[in-house]
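Hi support team,

I've been running sequence recovery on a batch of backbones for a student project. Most finish fine, but this one hangs at about 90% for roughly twenty minutes before it completes. I'm not sure whether the input is malformed or the queue is just slow. I've pasted the structure tokens below so you can try to reproduce it. Let me know if you need the job ID as well.

Thanks,
M.K.
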């Protein structure tokens, strides 16, 4: 496709293509000629064409680009299971402090402050999860799952347990199945009971001498608390298996219930969800893993330990090795530290209360069926038509839509998690978007969105034939 450079409109006249902001390189107005260069001749190239925008042009360019996008600072972003909460600026300030990013190869003696913070964060997370020890190394939730399962596997091997199966409820996040399979296990998928929770009878039938672990999300992806968790733990432990907690939904439980107290042996924390570090668009996250005492010797190396007031990097006795370079995504972890330290016990407890209240308030304001309840920090509404069309239409009402078509237990699912960060006014705005989209005719839904920077995108084509560079626009 081509653009008319005078007006920046598409030459093919496709009005549904939305707005367009040219690249600075495309906008270059005057030729840059450098008569005299301080560089030696063989290091200069005439072919290098640099843009030369004026300062206001440059400022407007980036402002326009930012306005074509939608982020958590534009409005509500209720992607269920993703916990897209607002990221407070003070955490950025902390991560930007001089010295925050010390070189990871420096000696322990010269980086005591950084090691102390890492040790504090290990301790905070262990306390929040009811775990004995925590590693900060894994760089994402999925990487945390993989690490946790490798730790469980090493534990079983060390104890001579020959177990080759991991049980995963069918409502689990796709990464659970993938992590178990990647660690070399057979994945046994567990059907849900009628009420959307774990079917305890089916679990009893599924566990055996082959069970290495059960991976569980609680509240599950429908937002329902697995209230049989103690019985579930007994069944799995009784068969010699371990209990893995997918901590991505910890926002519902913060300060109230601890996975360790529910009987879980190993868990990951999605700090870029629960503890407000930015995520999305493939940016860095962190997925620390917590374990009970029996599993601590298998954690990745190094762990940070304190001895007589000195912080040291220590290799756990039966460590599975390293799962990431150096200290993991340290600046993300530093923001996590700042967030937890600032909120403290009462702030974290308040967070879960508001997250659950907001989800329940929003649900009460929308005209959609919500088949499973009582839900906590998120709910899954059912659209009585194509959930993707409803989601695209919601964009036209100025909000980000919920997660669509998952979990599959709900027809045309709209999985909605407003988070504690939204005000009542923002929740009302979201509810209006839901309800307008429900009332709109089929044509409006099928052609939506029409008020966004990009019109309706051919998703299949975008996934199969991605254009990864701006030059591809010329094709
Ligand atoms: C987000 C999520 C994960 C995976 O976390 P990533 O950081 O995206 O790898 C796992 N389980 C659940 C329930 C999630 O919502």
């Amino acid at each position: 496709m081509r653009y008319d450079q005078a007006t920046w409109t598409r030459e093919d006249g496709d009005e549904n293509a939305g707005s367009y902001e040219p690249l600075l390189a495309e906008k270059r107005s005057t030729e840059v000629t450098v008569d005299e260069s301080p560089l030696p001749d063989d290091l200069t190239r005439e072919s290098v064409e640099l843009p030369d925008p004026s300062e206001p042009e440059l400022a407007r360019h980036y402002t326009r680009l930012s306005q074509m996008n939608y982020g958590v600072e534009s409005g509500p972003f209720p992607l269920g299971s993703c916990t897209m909460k607002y990221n407070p600026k003070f955490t950025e300030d902390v991560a930007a402090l001089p010295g925050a990013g010390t070189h990871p190869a420096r000696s322990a003696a010269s980086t005591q402050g950084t090691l102390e913070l890492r040790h504090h964060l290990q301790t905070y997370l262990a306390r929040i999860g009811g775990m004995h020890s925590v590693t900060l190394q894994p760089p994402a939730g999925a990487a945390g799952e993989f690490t946790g399962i490798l730790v469980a596997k090493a534990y079983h091997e060390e104890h001579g347990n020959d177990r080759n199966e991991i049980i995963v409820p069918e409502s689990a996040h796709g990464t659970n199945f993938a992590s178990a399979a990647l660690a070399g296990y057979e994945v046994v998928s567990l059907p849900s009971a009628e009420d959307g929770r774990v079917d305890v009878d089916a679990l009893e039938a599924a566990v055996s001498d082959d069970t290495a672990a059960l991976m569980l999300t609680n509240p599950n992806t429908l937002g329902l608390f697995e209230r049989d968790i103690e019985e579930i733990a007994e069944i799995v432990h009784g068969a010699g298996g371990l209990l893995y907690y997918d901590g991505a939904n910890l926002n519902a439980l913060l300060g109230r219930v601890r996975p360790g107290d529910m009987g879980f042996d190993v868990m990951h924390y999605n700090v870029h969800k629960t503890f407000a570090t930015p995520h999305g668009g493939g940016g860095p996250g962190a997925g620390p893993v917590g374990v009970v005492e029996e599993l601590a010797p298998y954690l990745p190396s190094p762990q940070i330990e304190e001895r007589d007031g000195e912080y040291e990097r220590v290799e756990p006795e039966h460590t599975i090795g390293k799962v990431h370079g150096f200290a993991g995504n340290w600046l993300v972890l530093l923001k996590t530290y700042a967030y937890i330290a600032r909120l403290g016990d009462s702030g974290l407890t308040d967070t879960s209360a508001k997250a659950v209240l907001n989800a329940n308030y929003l649900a009460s304001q929308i005209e959609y069926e919500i088949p499973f309840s009582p839900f906590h920090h998120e709910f899954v509404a059912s659209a009585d038509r194509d959930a993707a069309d409803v989601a695209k239409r919601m964009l036209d009402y100025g909000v980000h839509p919920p997660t669509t078509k998952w979990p599959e237990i709900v027809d045309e699912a709209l999985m909605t998690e407003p988070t504690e960060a939204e005000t009542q006014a923002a929740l009302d705005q979201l509810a209006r978007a839901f309800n307008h989209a429900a009332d709109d005719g089929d044509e409006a839904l099928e052609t939506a969105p029409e008020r966004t920077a990009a019109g309706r995108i051919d998703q299949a084509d975008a996934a199969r034939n991605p254009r990864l560079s701006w030059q591809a626009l010329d094709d």
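--
Follow-up from support: It reproduced on our side and the slowdown came from queue contention, not your input. The CA atoms of residues 432 and 455 lie 22 Å apart. No action needed from you.
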